[in-house]
Amino acid sequence: MAEPLSRRDLEFLLYEWLDVVKLTERRRFAEHSRETFDAVLELSADIATRRYAPHNALGDAHEPYVGDDGTVVLPDEITSGINEFLKAGLVAGSFDEELGGMALPTVVNRASAAWFQAANAAMSSYTFLSVGNANLIAEYGTPEQIDTWVRPIVEGRFFGTMCLSEPQAGSSLADITTKAIPAADGTYRVTGTKMWISAGDHELGENIVHLVLAKTPGGGPGVKGISLFIVPKYLPDGTRNDVALVGLNHKMGNRATTNCLLNFGDGTHSPDPAPGAVAYLVGEEHKGLSYMFHMMNEARIGVGFLATSLGYAGYLASLEYAKVRTQGRPVDQKDPTAKPVPIVEHADVKRMLLAQKSYVEGSLALGLYCSKLVDLQQTGDDAEQARAGLLLDVLTPIAKSWPSQWCLEANSLAIQVLGGYGYTREFPVEQYYRDNRLNPIHEGAHGIHGLDLLGRKVVMRDGAGLTLLAETIGDTIARAEADPALAEYAAALRTRLDTLVATTVAVWSAGDVAVSLANATAYLEATGHIVIAWMWLEQLLAVGTSTGDFYDGKRAAAQYFYRYELPKTGPAFELLTALDRTTLDTDPAWL
């Protein structure tokens, strides 16, 4: 079985392109070196391939269920594999040393996490949701909350979730109905129902720390009335809190991650005479959604990584298969007695493999680039922090949505490469596709991120976000223009970048927000293609004149993306500049 990720590609991206070792010159990362980064990555690859990958199909076939005693039952192999991850201390990767963490750069920690996401997406979710949960509390919680809830997560004893959606309110969080009422002791009592809660209940650790969005009295309608609460499964004294598992959702993929319908405060456990689940306010009332964006934005980049990792695993599996599966003869070979050739020799199979390679390696580059921006934002001077933060704001909807769309397409192509075998459960690529199909949905569907990108990110601060993105891509183009071997790519990207800027202006000239945003998803997809083309030009600059199959593979994938994919932005921009009203003017009765 092929490894789920390419060690060589990670090494290239981290060290030859992003030069992450230079981060060790910053005080936060001064205790690290190339050797410590390599040690973490090697340990991650070892545990992921040895304790996660072998149980990927097992967790898919034997998904969690609720036992007779009301507890969630997971296969023992999954529990023991996660325990090995926890014992290795990898959950502590990016946390400050004062919290018991390793203080790894985010970019290295994300590379470590990608091994687990590629090896077993469902198993990886339990711990990585916990990390995002703890990061939020560490940022906005009180010292007591950090000691009570964050440290046990970093130690691997507690797990964490995010509880946003409700049965009637998915992306539209303004419509949540969960309530939080202040109690006399300074805590709150939460009542309500949360839906689609990943890792919402299990027996993997001592406790589950739920971060719950709820509305408090006097907050007013909409999102401005939302507050954020810590609602643990067990209270600090060990008493069971009034958090009840109503049932598990049965998913198309990612089956080994429990996905729960949870009731808060329905009286199932009643730890207190007052009705409701005991809850602890994070920060100030009515600012909950702004706090939750800390975890949501982290999760959005994480979803992009998850989509990338699954696409990468499928690509490598289909590549391995194509090299050993013999079938057919070259189209110019007329001798029927000639031996069949490996299918990797056929032009159309190479097309499908090049497409996958261009999608997954481009997406991995984007995810790691955004992760390095997080490190620069945390450790730079004021100017560097502001620049990195603004660029990250613009790139986040793309880093989530583009891999979720195109690495899913990579999984579809992987099935196609394997043919009939790819459509069977005896081979892994069909599961990769099912697992990956969730990623275009959760943490904001494409439509949500299209609205975010076009409606907020590129126009905020009088267009400062788009200006910075264009300047940053322009800097790469300028460097490439100095290299005759890259001049063709530089010219193509400059043309498309200029069109992006002009299209943005044209779209907002409509004078009607509904018209301007009607085709925001097309804008997201086209802008994403330009960003991935930028990532490929960056990689070609890092390749330089290096020789060998690995570097030639980078050149081939970049050429594919520029010849086959980047031109697809043309029709999208034409649609956008025409201010097409097809979707607006369609009567629901016609559908």
Low-confidence stretches: none
Gyration radius, rounded:
24 Å
Indicate the percent of residues in helices: 40-55%
Largest sheet properties: 8 strands, mixed
The CATH architecture of the largest domain comes to Orthogonal Bundle
Query: How many helix segments?
Result: 19
Tell me what you see in this structure:
The protein is of the alpha+beta class. The protein is globular. Helices cover 55% and strands 10% of the residues. The two termini are 46 Å apart. The chain contains 19 helices and 10 strands. A hairpin with a 5-residue loop joins strand 4 and strand 5. The protein folds into 3 domains: 152 residues, Acyl-CoA dehydrogenase/oxidase, N-terminal domain (Butyryl-Coa Dehydrogenase, subunit A, domain 1); 127 residues, Butyryl-CoA Dehydrogenase, subunit A, domain 2, CATH 2.40.110; 139 residues, no CATH class. Belongs to the acyl-CoA dehydrogenase family.
Question: What order do the helices and strands come in, and which of them pair?
Answer:
Elements: H1 7-17, H2 34-52, H3 56-61, E1 65-66, E2 72-73, H4 76-87, H5 106-119, H6 121-140, H7 143-154, E3 158-163, E4 179-182, E5 188-198, E6 207-215, E7 226-232, E8 243-248, E9 259-264, E10 277-281, H8 288-324, H9 347-379, H10 382-418, H11 429-436, H12 446-457, H13 460-481, H14 487-508, H15 513-517, H16 520-543, H17 549-565, H18 569-577, H19 582-585
Parallel strand pairs: 3-6
Antiparallel strand pairs: 1-2, 4-5, 5-9, 5-10, 6-7, 7-10, 8-9
